Predict the 3D structure of the following.
Amino acid sequence: MNNSNYILIADDNQDMHYLIKRMLKDRNYRFIDTYDGKETLDKIDEIKPDIILLDLRMPKMDGLLVLEEIEKKGLLNEIPVLVLTVISDMELKIKALEMGASDFITKPPNPFELKARIDTYLKLKNITKQLKSYSQKLEKEVDKRTRELKRYVDKLESMVEEKVGVIKEKNEELRHSIRSAGSVQRSLLPTTFPLSDYVKFTAKHIPCEDVGGDFYDVFRIDENNIGLFIADVSGHGVPSAMITIFLKQEISYRVKRVVKDGQYVITKPSSILNDINKSFINSNIGEGFFYITMVYAIYNIKEKLLTCSIAGHHALPIIKKSNGKTDIINAESYPIGWFEGDLNYQDQDYKLDTGDILLLYTDGVFDLLFDNYKNIDLNKRLSMIEELLKKNDLMRRINREVRRYIEKNGKLKDDVSILIMKVLK
């Protein structure tokens, strides 16, 4: 995280300024202090902050008017605004979110929540900025190449050798930009996993192109609960990759819900999937062409309880018990983005024991193990994966099939992702 980020604190209470700075003192942020709405807007014009912590009740101009002015300046897409509220301000919270605020933090803030929210939105801001830059560069390069080809079309015969060289150069630049976008996407995949004394995670992600539509994540919700998911966005390339970023942001925002006095409840997996479906359709991110299949689960280390919900994901999760038996987690459900409204996703609970293994994966695994897998019965496909899991041979077989497939075809047909959780104690 860049420690030179500007954090603007807009609150008429000096004690709140002191409290927030104290909570963030280890981050070395640069702070901008404002105490009323007008001063806040002046500072935004003078020093464009990286993130704004905005109190809704300020003198001269309240927070909602400040939010409205920020929107008029076209800055809401560039600067995350986290609203500072008290529990009783529920209507103001909703109004602020409808007006474009990124999120809200209940006062007085919890230091861990405050840091996590700021870290998340600064990271998402930087990633969005990079992807926007890549997209603009791609558009400029394509436009430039199109104009060049049109201008010289009458001289094509005499210039064909020269233009072939130019096109190769531009294509390489485009490929470089796409590879950079892939690096950004891969940086969002977890490299370390939480509560490693209780559970062990193993993961593999192999995109068929430089950027892909597969994504997984594992994150700590609180001291007893871990959230984990695997998702497969239809299609490949930059559009699918951008949807995976939307997905990560949505889950991060919805995983917990504050109820009162700083207390929270953990959102059920089925509710997460329903809320993401509504947000995905209402925001038109998929533009009617893209959809998401996924599995989202919560594991409680204290109770050893796995709660799982599925959204149209045909690569069904498999639990391998410590005694060698296996269970397939099955559910008839629709992918995210197919239909509007509440899709009634269901939660399923599974009691796990020490030594039990949970396997999450995408249907790219089927492409590796079966030729023309869509013509093969789903139960037969699942049975083979069950057998490989029982023999502790899944990862070795996948690595072998990846090498074989690439040697034969040059590249994979589909993204391949696997996430394995083993209960240690």
About this structure: DSSP finds eleven helices and 17 strands in the chain.
